[in-house]
Amino acid sequence: MRKAERTKALYAGSFDPVTRGHLDIIGKALVTFDAVHVAVGTNVRKQRAFGVEESLRLLRRSVVELWPEADGRADAGPADGSLFAGALEIGEFTNQSLIRYARTIGATHIVRGLREASDFNEEFNLHGVAGRIDPSIPMVHFICDARFLHVSSSTAKELDAMGEDVAWLVMPSVQAAFRARRSVG
Description:
Mean pLDDT: 88
Helix content: 25-40%
Strand content: 15-25%
Number of strands: 5
Number of helices: 6
Shape: globular
């Protein structure tokens, strides 16, 4: 058993919207793996606030807002290349399992984020299922920084809907997208 020559992690989620907690996990993955592929997917158990295309755009913009050295155009679409000189890719997956998508993009690892103890049960289940489907793609869990333990997309959506400041939860581009949704609705 040996480490893959070049490692590539898949970090997949609904990112609806991307939060500072998600960005913390992306940062941890970037310093751990040679390349990171962040994929926006759909969760049939959740109602999306932003469409997948909008989530892809907000993810790219949020990365560039947090890390200007990512050297990407914040307004670029998901097909317009990658960030951090190719070390960070942003994509979309639908209608396929996480493992199948990981194989498709050549991922050597799957990254998952943990915030609180309640996340553990769901992640433990996913870890077991993924390991049965393809044990050659290990799942790696990162615990987010303590300041992000209470950060979630659901919390951001709920607080924004009540008119609360969400700057501590999301980047400015996501705040602007929330404002734009309110002005239309």
